[in-house]
Amino acid sequence: MKKIILAALLLCGAIRAGAQSPASEGPAEPYRVEVAFDKTVHILFPSAVKYVDLGSANILAGKADGAENVVRVKAAVRGFTGATSFTVITASGVLYTFEALYADSPAQLTVELEDWLHRDPYGPFASRQTYVRLSELGDETPLVVNRIMYTIYKRDARHIKTVGSKRFGVQLLLKGIYVQDELFYFHTSLRNLSKVDYDIDRVRFRIADRKVAKRTAVQETVIEPVCRFNEIAAVQAGGTVRNVWVFRKFTIPDDKVLIMDVFEHNGGRHQSFMIGNTDLVDARTITELKVR
Predict the structure, then answer these.
(1) Any idea where the domains of the chain sit in the sequence?
(2) pTM confidence score
(3) Do the Cβ atoms of 100 and 23 come closer than 8 Å?
(4) I need a labelling partner for 52 at 20 to 30 A (CA). Which of 96, 183, 221, 279 fits?
């Protein structure tokens, strides 16, 4: 049944067949895990799990209840011989292949996979992996998108110096906008100049009217990023955090603006800034970054 579901996704375009990165470096070896009949092995992935497929009926595997990035695996048959396999696809577009062998006492009951796609997307390990094309990323592969985000983050340039907000000792800035094919990349920073930690409740992007008359209903549209470089929950006192947000390409009517809101958890130090259509059309191209 799971194979049928994946085939339907492929047909509908939600997940399209992906290409493996440079064949000259050779494919990555499957991860090897030991499973038991009386014990459960938990595998922690860097991003949310979207799909799990089993190679045989000798094992049971599925997403852990209440956790988007955890898969639990155990043997369905006590003492099965030989090896079987299972495959996992995550929201980052990475396809993981595992080889499972039976052991009464598995060497590891918890396996945490390194987030190499964000830490070093130019490294040989990232280049050997298999990726699926995600419809929300258009024609770009997840590896290319992560390399672009990584390059923007590491270079930390500030091309836009007029968009931001500063209230209650907290400063939110838009440092740059980049464009590649069908995707926008927004580089932002959040600096906490106060002596009180800033816990982030949520971040929202919305298109709203530039001017709203009193007693007039606000017409706005919330837009969701299709990818982000970091998952940020807090900014410590005196600290600064940066992020890169990826959106499908869009434009803004002259009478509207794009607003970024950052809300403090159990606090009132809400930050926001407005982006006009001029800022979008003046976006820098990715070729200026010289992404490898």
Answers:
(1) 2-137, 148-289
(2) 0.80
(3) no
(4) 183
- Distance from C-alpha of 77 to C-alpha of 159, rounded to nearest angstrom: 59
Fold: same for 2-137 and 148-289: yes
| Phi, then psi, of 193 in degrees rounded to 5 | -85, -5
**Residue whose token pair is 């923007």:** 152
Q: Which amino acid is at 283?
A: A
Residue 41 has pLDDT above 70, yes or no: yes
**Interatomic CA distance for residues 207 and 254, integer angstroms:** 11
11 in helix, strand or coil?
helix
Instruction: Supply the CATH classification number for the domain 148-289.
Output: 2.60.40.10
User: Cα–Cα distance between 280 and 244 in angstroms, integer?
Assistant: 15
Say which amino acid occupies 267.
G
CB 158 within 8 A of CB 137: no
Residue 103, pLDDT above cutoff 60: yes
Q: In this model, does residue 8 exceed pLDDT 50?
A: no
Query: At 205, phi and psi to the nearest 5?
Result: -120, 130
